[in-house]
Amino acid sequence: MMIKLLNTISFKIAIIFSICTVILLISMGFMIHHLVTQHFSMQDRAQLEGKIQLIQHILKQDNINPDQLNTYLTDALVGHHNLVVQIERPIGHIIFQSAPQYINKDQLKKPVLDSFWFNWENQHKIYHGLVYEQHDGNTTTPPIQIIVGIDTSEHLHFLHDFRDQLLYIGLAGTTFIMFFGWLAAWRGLRPIKKMAQVAEGISAQHLSERLEIHHIPLELQPLAIAFNDMLDRLKAALAKLSDFSSDLAHEIRTPLNNLMTQTQVCVSRPRQINDYKEVLFSNLEELEHLSRMISDMLFLAKTEHGLHITQRQQIHLEHEIQTLIDFYDAVAAEKEITFQHIGTATVHANPSLLRRALSNLFSNAIKYGQAQSVIETQCERLNKKTIFSITNKGPELSQEQLSRLFDRFYRTDASRQRMEDGTGLGLAITKSILDLHGASIKVTSCDGEITFTITFE
C-alpha cells in the first residue's frame, strides 16, 4: 500500500511542492532573522553612540571633581541596567567603571564581518560594545578612552525564541501545504479516473460514451480530446470492419452459389458431354474470379504490413496513359466512349505498380461512365508536384458515397449486385499503391462528372 502511495502522481506533486515551499520558507526565515538581528544591532549602536556623546559632554565640563563626575555618570546610566561603561583618562588610568571587572581593550574580539562592534564576555554574559578614543594633540588635555557595552542576553533570548517560532510555523505550514497540495492534485487528476472508467466500459458493442470536455481542466483537455477522437476512429474502423465482413461474405457467396447451383443442376440427371463442358467453363470463370479476389486481398494485406517498393524509376506519365488508352480502347468502343488526354509530366515510381493503379482508374471510368461520352485525362507539373486527373460522365455521388469509395468491396448500388466483372477491390488497391509512393488521391462528383485526382509529391 505504501509503495502504491509513493508511486502516485498526486503524492509526487505534493512532495515537490512541499520541497519548494520548505526551501522558500527557510530562505525567508534566514532573511527575517538577519533583518531582525541587524535591526537590534543598529538600535544598540544608536543607543551606545548617544551614551558616548553624553559622556563626552560631561567630561568637557570644567571644575568638576571626581566625585561629581562619578555621580553624573552613575545618574546617566539610571534605567539602563544592561549598559556598562569604562572611562580611562589618560588611557590606562580608570576614572569610572560600571562593570564589575576591568575591560581590557586588547582582549576585545572584533567580528570579521562587522567594522565597528567589539564583543566580549563577562560573568557568562555576552556584550557588544564600542570603543572611543580621543587624542587632541594638546599636551594639556590627556587622551580619553571610552568603552561602552550592552548586554545582548535579552536579544539572544528573543532571537532564540523567534527562531523556534519560525521553525514551528514553517513545519506546520509545510504540513498543511503538503496535505492541501496532495488534495488539490488528487482532485485535479479525477478526470483521469473518469477516463479509466470510460475505457473499462469500451467494447466492440459500446463505443458511444465520451468524456465531457467542458468540465475537464485545461491541462487535461488535449488528452480528453485525443481520447474522444480515438474512440471516434475506433468506432469508424469497427463500422468499416463490420461492413467489410458483410461485403466479403456477399462477394464470396455469389460465386459459391453459382458454382453450387450450376453443379447441382448439372448432376441432377445425365447430360451430353457439351453440357458438362459448358458447366465446367462457367465454374472456371467463377473460380478465376475467386482467385483474383484472393490475390487482391493478399496484395492489400502486404501493403498494410509495410510492403517496400523497389525498382523505382523516372516514368513519363503521358506514355503510360497512352499505353492504357490503347489497351482499353476496344473495351471503351463497346460503349462508344472515347479518350482525350492533355499535358506531360514525369513521376518517380515503380512501373508495374503505377500501371496497375492507373489501370484500375481507367477500368472504373469505363465501367461506370455514360455511353457515348468522353473520358478526359490530364497531367501537369505544379508547385514541384505532379498532378494527374481522370474525369468521366456518370451518376452524381453523395458525399457519403465519395467518402467510402476507396473502401474494400464497397459498391455505390445498394443492391450490391455484381453487374460488372470485378472483385470490388480495384479502388482500394489503387489507394494502397499510391500510399506506398507517398502520393494522395481524392475524388469529386459535380454536375454529372466524377473526377479522380492524384497528387505525387
Brief rundown of the structure:
The chain contains 11 helices and 12 strands.
Q: Care to count the β-strands?
A: 12
Major sheet description = 5 strands, antiparallel
Oligomer designation: single chain
Beta fraction of the residues? 15-25%
> Helical element count?
11
**Class by SSE composition:** alpha+beta
What does this structure look like?
This protein has 457 residues and is of the alpha+beta class. It has helices at 2-6, 9-59, 66-76, 153-188, 190-200, 221-267, 273-304, 317-333, 351-368, 399-403, 426-436, and strands at 83-88, 94-97, 118-122, 125-134, 144-151, 313-316, 338-342, 346-349, 374-382, 385-393, 440-446, 449-456. The chain has three domains: 2-175, no CATH class; 218-304, Helix Hairpins, CATH 1.10.287; 313-456, Histidine kinase-like ATPase, C-terminal domain (Heat Shock Protein 90, 2-Layer Sandwich), CATH 3.30.565.10. The protein has a five-stranded antiparallel β-sheet. The chain has a five-stranded mixed β-sheet with strand order 7-9-10-12-11, covered by helices on one side. Strands 6-8 form a two-stranded antiparallel sheet. Helix 9 (351-368) packs antiparallel against helix 11.
